[in-house]
Write a structure and sequence with these properties.
4-stranded antiparallel β-sheet, mainly beta
């Protein structure tokens, strides 16, 4: 990040640009006369040749331009460690981004999810298009204005690399590549603020129809609403589509929780939908979907946490296994076939709240956790022993990797969808960082952090975003990340990933 004064300088006294000459006002009575405006300043052609384009020596002119221009400090700025001086603000180094867009909504959104589309995988063409769902955080007297937003973001152009690059890419440029970004939304009314929202797509019965897209929304009043947003998504691309009030009503309302919660995840391996939800009482419920749109919760909860369940995730390759994180400092692994509804494995991973977890989809024995003290870690689940094993003398497993770079709570963590060495981490210090775990500590080149102290060599990129709460990789646009915070949404792609 670069620092610059918040106020802009400008006005009639700005330094002249190269190639410009000050033109004296021409009086009508003197129109036929020529006057050398610099005749008193220069007495010889040699002196005139040494002068700049505005009649002053180049050194003097350049010094004035530097003094009048906006001061920009190009050194790396690390939020949470460095502090801005009075009158300074942060500005991103746009040369490090391939894609960078920000958008604001009427109300902030604590949670969102990216929806897979039919535009193809591994997309690299611009402008980009993203579909997403989000729940709002209107509070107090404005609670009735809360909504589930179904969004289409299109016209997301890549960063302008300057004239030279444009000239070199003229043959490959798309006419719409520099189109203006467009945000389209469809609104579904909600009776309360959204704590968490997750999307799931049921496989289509035939290729002629799009997949059914479901959303599960955990509300502050402890209700869980399931909506079918398929018609809302289709309306963006099919002109004239009319969404009826009935289509905006939930297909199911689940009321098994007695307190609000933030933990929720869809199983990626069950076609009709299988939903996990955890609450502040430490209880976890499983809800099964069936053909025909029927939803049946198991009213007997899974118990074992001593405090609130903060996050929950299904195993990416075992349909009966899931993991949960809690403010009791533990991560537990469960088997839904267990008659006792107790955890199979429990490991103390932090002395503070464990806020978030992420299960690697590429290397399925790796699980990442993020805690309230700003530390995040990667664990090898093969080292975790079940409670029934006779291993009382075996010490607690140690993290494969652990980082305390962030100085505030970790709010979101997610593995790259196709590269098991890349991680995205969001924190309460207003930063979203990208990490490359493949970097070796004993690599001489890797230890070079350009003179910046206290930066791990695995830190790949640092993106500033106020009050960032949640981030997700786009599964179909390699390296593209979407995040939400107090100031709205951000979508970016760096030159590093």
């Amino acid at each position: 990040m670069a620092k610059r004064p918040a106020e802009e300088l400008g006005g009639e006294d700005d330094a002249l640009k190269a190639g410009q000459r000050p033109l004296p006002a021409v009086d009508g009575d003197e129109a036929g006369q020529f006057e050398d405006e610099f005749e008193d300043e220069f007495e010889s052609e040699d002196e005139i040749l040494e002068a700049g384009v505005d009649g002053r020596p180049d050194e003097e002119r350049e010094l004035e331009e530097k003094r009048d221009a906006m001061e920009v400090d190009q050194k790396a700025f690390i939020p949470g460690r460095d502090k801005l001086a009075a009158g300074e603000s942060l500005s991103p180094d746009t040369s490090t981004y391939e894609l960078l867009h920000n958008l604001t909504t009427t109300w902030p959104c604590l949670s969102f999810d990216i929806v897979r589309d039919q535009l193809g995988n591994n997309r690299k063409a611009y402008p980009a298009t993203v579909y997403a769902v989000a729940g709002t955080q209107a509070e107090g007297r404005k609670t009735s204005q809360n909504e589930l937003m179904v969004m289409k973001l299109s016209g997301l152009s890549r960063m302008d690399r300057g004239k030279e690059e444009e000239d070199s890419d003229d043959e490959n440029d798309d006419d719409d590549e520099n189109a203006d970004p467009i945000l389209e939304t469809k609104s579904i009314p909600l009776q309360s603020t959204t704590n968490r929202i997750r999307a799931y797509q049921c496989p289509p019965q035939n290729s002629a129809k799009p997949p059914t897209t479901l959303t599960a929304t955990m509300l502050e009043d402890s209700d869980i609403l399931i909506h079918d947003v398929t018609p809302h998504l289709s309306s963006f691309d099919i002109p004239g589509t009319i969404i009826t009030p009935q289509q905006s009503k939930p297909v199911a309302t689940l009321k098994m929780h007695r307190t609000e919660g933030y933990a929720m995840d869809w199983s990626p391996l069950v076609p009709h939908g299988k939903l996990l939800t955890g609450d502040n009482d430490g209880k976890i419920f499983v809800t099964m979907g069936a053909e025909g749109g029927k939803w049946t919760p198991d009213n007997r909860p899974f118990t074992g946490h001593q405090s609130s369940v903060e996050d929950i995730q299904w195993s990416p390759n075992e349909r009966n296994v899931f993991a949960s994180a809690s403010s009791d400092g533990t991560v537990k692994v469960w088997d839904v076939r267990s008659k006792s509804h107790k955890p199979a494995v429990s490991v103390k991973v932090s002395q503070t709240d464990v806020n978030v977890i992420s299960w690697s989809r590429q290397t399925t024995h790796l699980l990442a956790s993020g805690a309230d003290d700003g530390q995040w870690a990667v664990w090898d689940l093969r080292q975790w022993k079940s409670a029934t094993d006779n291993n009382a003398s075996v010490p607690e497993p140690k993290a494969v990797a652990s980082f305390n770079f962030h100085k505030e709570q970790i709010t979101s963590i997610e593995w790259h969808p196709t590269d098991d060495s890349i991680m995205a981490v969001a924190a309460g210090d207003n930063t979203l960082t990208l990490w490359d775990l493949a970097v070796e500590l004993d690599d001489e080149e890797s230890r070079d952090t350009a003179g910046v102290q206290g930066v791990p060599p695995q830190l790949l990129f640092l993106h500033y975003m106020e009050m960032v709460k949640e981030c997700h990789w786009h599964p179909q646009i390699p390296g593209c990340i979407m995040a939400t915070g107090g100031g709205g949404f951000g979508i970016f792609k760096t030159i590093s990933v």
